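Example record

The entry below shows one chain as it appears in the dataset: sequence first, then structure tokens.
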Amino acid sequence: MIFKLRLIVAYIILLSIIIAVIPLLSNSQVKQTPTTNNSSPIIKVLGRDEQIFEIELEEFLVGVVAGEMPADFGFDALKAQAVAARSYICALLPEFGGKGKHGEAVICTNSACCQAYIYPEELAVKWGEHNAENLAKIKTAVSETAGEVLSFEGKPVSAPFFSTCGGHTENSEDVWQAAVPYLRSVACCWDKAAPRYKSEASFTIEEVAEKFNATTEAVEAMAVAEVSEGGRVKEVTVGDIKLSGTKIRSLLGLNSAAFSWAIAQNQVVFSVQGFGHGVGMCQHGAAGMAALGADYKSILKYYYTGIEIDKLY
């Protein structure tokens, strides 16, 4: 009888051990899944020579921030850049309701199309003796904001950014037609130290006429027809032709569409304010805010109207 009781007790103990161990084994299998950086998504990127490569989003961001913002900017400016760039990418990912821009690849490394990206082997050349210091700074800015994105109505948003606003950012519809509620014009006084805050470009009247496909008389009489809320030229009349400010910027290679001009001695001299399209975060403005003590969340919420900062993964 005693033997039978001992046997029953042994079975109960063994059964308890099995019940306790099964979940642990299951969990151990989950932990072996090859993910790092808090389950950072693996993305496909269209790189140089039209080659597609796979990389963790957080790792990719290090090269993006390095390509998009000077490493000597304030730490909170770099963190703001990391969040904005991450948000831009996540808004394109199918798992978050987006559509990639390049077929199989969700994004490319061409700054004129998507975002700038510097390959790891190129960073050492770019930074020289400061490579280790700069790389550590940017990696920290990315890791301390890991998974954070800008969201509007619960979804990650495409968060554009640019170099220098020259006084005001721009409403989205004044540059890209579509009115986006979180891309509103705001005043910005923190970018005045930017190297391209002001610039000039000079052309002969004949050169402008050729680029505008207009007569020299029309160029001499051209006038601003409309200005945006952010102070950029929306439309110019050149004789019978109407050209948008962004079109003129493109035709003449101006730094922005915030321009005026003067004509004298057969020269058309354009005075330009700022550098870039003007929509979203002004990067030099962000640097100025960070230098005055603003944290990255305050910077982002200033330039992107009504957004929230959410932890996506």
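Notes for this example: The chain is about 40% helix and 20% strand. The first strand starts at residue 42 and ends at 46.
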